[in-house]
Amino acid sequence: MKAVTCTATKLEVVERPAPALEKGHLLLNVLRCGICGSDLHARHHADEMADAAAAAGYDGAMRLEQEVVLGHEFVGEVADHGPGTRKSIRAGTPVVAMPVVRTRGAAHPVGLSVAAPGAYAEQVVVQESLTMPVPNGLRPELAALTEPMAVAWHAVRRGQVKKGQVAVVIGCGPIGLGVISMLKASGVRTVIASDFSAGRRALAEACGADVVVDPATESPYASLKDHGYYTKVSTLLELAIDSMAKLRRLPLPWWHVFRAAEALGAMPDGPVVFECVGVPGVIDEIIAAAPLVTRVIVVGVCMAPDQIRPSIAINKEIDLRFVIGYTPKEFRDSLHMLAEGKVDGAPLITGSVGLAGVENAFNALGDPEKHAKIMIDPRSDATQP
Amino acid sequence: MKAVTCTATKLEVVERPAPALEKGHLLLNVLRCGICGSDLHARHHADEMADAAAAAGYDGAMRLEQEVVLGHEFVGEVADHGPGTRKSIRAGTPVVAMPVVRTRGAAHPVGLSVAAPGAYAEQVVVQESLTMPVPNGLRPELAALTEPMAVAWHAVRRGQVKKGQVAVVIGCGPIGLGVISMLKASGVRTVIASDFSAGRRALAEACGADVVVDPATESPYASLKDHGYYTKVSTLLELAIDSMAKLRRLPLPWWHVFRAAEALGAMPDGPVVFECVGVPGVIDEIIAAAPLVTRVIVVGVCMAPDQIRPSIAINKEIDLRFVIGYTPKEFRDSLHMLAEGKVDGAPLITGSVGLAGVENAFNALGDPEKHAKIMIDPRSDATQP
């Protein structure tokens, strides 16, 4: 079968033997595979990524000099069942799978380890237990968004955004766009999106952002004061005095006064900010510019060490929640939200290529005005996205 | 009245005029005032602290060259009622108060601003609406712990520690000891405490820590694996495959399989770590050494810029929650937990001085083997803690 390998930054279409199936494996004929920002990053910085994964207890991530097949955002048709499988999903059924596979006794991430080749290929091996049929005749290119949309859905869930709370999305790459879509799908009324690129801002609007901001001319946090969020510690000091004075005038027992003080929000909610950029300095910028009690969901993967000012974060009671991946249920939710039309992934997809066009697609993704998500169709001959 | 002023790091007992009361003020005769780590820090680094407060929207914090009366952890007897007060608390009643006061139209933190002199003095001005009678005849030195214990209680509440979840307290100064006490008071079964000082470790045990660790010889995180916490991303990958395979063997509809997967903890809880040190590098050390999905409550105030590695925090799904202060209800809870004996503050108090002994007390607090919390009793002549 044909596959695109990445070896020391070089992308190449090669002929590879058909994959051997181990216990619990399924073989898929790939229908589509999305190109992820992690793939672009891994091409050049695999070693730093592998070091970070090793620090968190996974030793098998791809290294720059290894010959690896990338691709973890895929949809395919079941082509073969390995030994010890339940065969409940018949050959020919279109499926998606969480990109994790056990091979030679250890679990590896598909498309980010030499041990588990990915879906920049005509065929890919997946784990039967993590495979799910695509429902409702969902188009393959939309089904292939299950994985990145699951990342976004996990981030939104970790953000615990209330419907009336304002969400701010910093960076409108594919993950930022996915976060916007998922926030709107979960009923959040006001989503502010920020990106330097006009093209990306247009996509953010297409994904449902209520306000789009060019951070070169306007702060994405400027309007938060109008939404009632506190921007000054001094306001909280005033609030403590005044709310307690008011409550003590009520004919309530002592104890109830304090219950009421808490219920009235002596410690109010802040907005939820999604950091979807992942370059050094962005977290500290958010800490410095955001209102009090802001919850920051760090989705963008900053590989370099980064500097923050804890004293400002403390004075503002900032939360930083770092997120990665998703649970099996979130992956399943993402698939079904796409299949039921609760989220529309179509605006994200800006191009498509065959295996021979992968290198051109990687280059095209360097320009945020033109592209967000490019799909690989292994049956296509297209070389330009 | 006598007061201790701090001017350009110099502490001095001076005679000051009796404070003037504005609308809503009470005057207290100070019974006790605790010396806080912030006071020690403010003596030398007030300007950095004021800059951090200004960045979070409070401009009135003390500056190094100003003549300031420190002291925000106090108990006193009501001596006088200002204009426009309700006078529901009679003269002579022992009270504590949240250290926030409005003067000349703006709210200021008592004892950390030149506008609101603190309780290193015979008398202090407080806001009636934030004042609470001391119940149950609680001894003054314990009532004076209401404020630092409220800081600890707020941190514990922001930690949302479940009773079966393991809590780790890094640094056993007064706030770390308060956090340990509050964790045990709220029923958390296993509290691990870590400090380089043998004296502080003994106090941690007295406050209820179940395990004490000298980080020079043993990692405070070493035993967490035995408590079932995951330390390796690879374990989570294995878990996803195996838990889904098991669930799919059950006679359940598709949908329930995923519900069950989530309920079974595909994304498990981690431990909760309280950072009560506040020097550069500690947050990154915790990120590097803690298990997956650890929630870090940053209570220690690190004034310098600090470096973290977001890529490791992301791979581990770390939460960093920065905390400061407390709500009025948390302050009230703290007072009542002390008064009802639900927390015992006595182990924290290691000494007492009069106003003339404040400088000696500051010096003595430099040695963690000897002292944790020193109380100032303005009626005492003691000069050595």
Quick summary:
The structure is a homodimer of 385-residue chains. By secondary structure, chain A is an alpha/beta fold. In chain A, 31% of the residues lie in helices and 23% in strands.
Secondary structure layout plus pairing:
The structure is a homodimer of 385-residue chains.
Chain A: E1 2-7, E2 10-15, E3 25-34, H1 37-55, E4 67-68, E5 73-81, E6 94-97, E7 100-103, E8 106-109, E9 123-127, E10 131-133, H2 140-143, H3 146-159, E11 167-170, H4 174-185, E12 191-194, H5 198-206, E13 211-213, H6 233-249, H7 254-263, E14 272-275, H8 282-289, E15 295-298, E16 306-308, H9 310-315, E17 319-322, H10 328-339, E18 349-353, H11 358-364, E19 373-376
Parallel strand pairs in A: 11-12, 11-14, 12-13, 14-15, 15-17, 18-19
Antiparallel strand pairs in A: 1-2, 1-4, 3-5, 3-9, 3-19, 5-6, 6-10, 7-8
Helix pairs in contact in A: 3-4, 3-10, 6-7
The level-1 CATH class of the largest domain in chain A: Alpha Beta
- Quaternary: homodimer
Number of strands of chain A: 19
Computed CA radius of gyration of chain A, to the nearest angstrom: 23 Å
